[in-house]
């Protein structure tokens, strides 16, 4: 399966993965890590195309409405007549959330031929993907086909969910990625799986956990690694695994919840790569934006005016 790529200049960011509804019991919101990233990119003025699959149901209509609200084209939006739009049952426990991801949803059945057809003629600047959408063989095959067909650099947001993805799928996803974003807990899990369990419990730092990343990057031929560390900020590790830059943490202006903070960080990583920001600028802006999203109730704002100051302050028009 091949895709013709044409056109000069930086192309859109191609985002592939799940769009779903987070069900809190008394209310539901549209979510899915890749869809959160796509919506933020669009609101920040970065051209983006989202590839996902929804059901022909009320939840799918809500996803469609957010495509329209954020100005996202529907060329990559597939509709499954047999399976429901993805749903995640969410239980809030204090400031934390417990998620139960339902099985066999529409986004598990992304059609490879339709996905490749939806990007034919594009020259994406990046292909963004995670691991959750690859838990099932059908969507995993579609994402594999896209990676094979497109020359675009791959940016991975690992976004591990317990009991959803096995290490071999993670290994395949990491292989040859130009950039990978993980949180510190995910980095420790990768080190335990692919380097050595003892190194996964070492303290953070160039001589500790950060050093183990060198083996990871070399093993999977990863270009660079972004690590989010909660209140401690973030770090950028270069292609040799060296700790090149650390960004300070930012307290949120108010506390809403942490849902979508990692997706907000990933969106700014993609936006910064698209605009060519240097890494200190990119890290600082990603930290600031993620902290601001922690001040929201949910992963994306209800009022799109939220993005206006960021676009103005960052010179995005």
TrEMBL record:
Q: List keywords of the entry alphabetically.
A: Kinase, Transferase
Q: Which InterPro entries match?
A: Carboh/pur_kinase_PfkB_CS (IPR002173), PfkB_dom (IPR011611), Ribokinase-like (IPR029056)
Q: What is this protein called?
A: PfkB protein
The record ties this protein, via PROSITE patterns, to: PFKB_KINASES_1 (PS00583)
Keyword Hydrolase tagged: no
Question: What is a single cellular component term in the Gene Ontology annotation?
Answer: cytosol
Q: Which residues form the Carbohydrate kinase PfkB domain?
A: 29-299
Q: Which residues form the signal peptide?
A: none
